[in-house]
Request: fold
Amino acid sequence: MNAAVLDHDHGHDGRKPSTAPGHGTGGPAAKRIIVGDGFWVFLISDIIMFSAFFAAYAILAPATAAGPSARQIFDPNSVAIETACLLLSSFTCGLASVAASQRSQKWTQAALLLTGLLGFAFLLLEAREFSGLLARGDGPTRSAFLSAFFTLVGCHGLHVTAGLLWLGTMMAQIYAKGFRRDIQHRYFCFTLFWHALDIIWVAIFGLVYLVGLNL
Amino acid sequence: MSTPADYEPGAGLEGDSAPGYESETREGVRAAIRGYLIGLVLASALTVASFWASSTHLIYGPGVPIALVVLAVAQMGIHLVFFLHITTSPDNTNNVLALAFGVLIVFVLVFGTVWAMAHMNANMMPSMG
Reply:
């Protein structure tokens, strides 16, 4: 029998032991990995919270209480522009990550600014839609359908607002403190948050707006 | 802790990754940008397909919501792979397991609610509205 097989450092299939941190002999994982994993778990819990709002909306969508239905209040053009804004902002956020990995202050700030502007344009369109509904008396108190709609889409809008504040904070911190390790960890969490918001919007524009237009 | 003879400083770092992490090397930049571009193109295509499916009359009416659900799930997958860099590589096991558990909870919550409430509506007495 080969002596290496008996060596506890070696896998039973004869492969070399992993020297990567966080795997067997590699010692604890790098802080960047732990920060990312922890924030990822938070994002999944956030998505589970959204799924509860999606479930409530799915149940209450037909309960219009003689008020307007989804088909009557949704504007597909506005939704298409909102979707384009968030999708492009997710892309520019990715480009900012590439720039940050190269420690390029100029390109990181430019890509983040573009990300923020696209996010702001999204919020303006959503605010226009909400204020139009409220002006016509079709606010969240009008029907169970509108309560569920405002809760779900409004909660996503609040997340985007929080994301924009975080984005502004990150731009200021990267500008003032540079690409310090702790700043990188915060920035890394921000990019995960921003991409996750876009994933939730994919479910909203598909399952709420586009399905609603076909009910 | 034992150190193998062929250990190179920093070599192990490449074997581990968190969601969203990408290479910091110069040659990695081009690949990283290409990855985001592919993601953008695929996500845009699925978005356009979704809007097309909701407005066309070529698809059998009751089938449209099903098509939209499939397209939305596909696009969320594209976002996870190309923007959040969740892959099936061994280093991503922790993240994929957390994601799988999250998907299970979301599935139970959404489909369980819809299923249970549909039965409650069916069993409701007419006078209860």
Observations:
- The first helix of chain B runs from residue 26 to 55.
- Chain B has two domains: 23-85, 90-129.
- Residues 109 and 115 of chain B are 10 Å apart (CA to CA).
- Helices of chain B lie at 26-55, 64-82, 93-123.
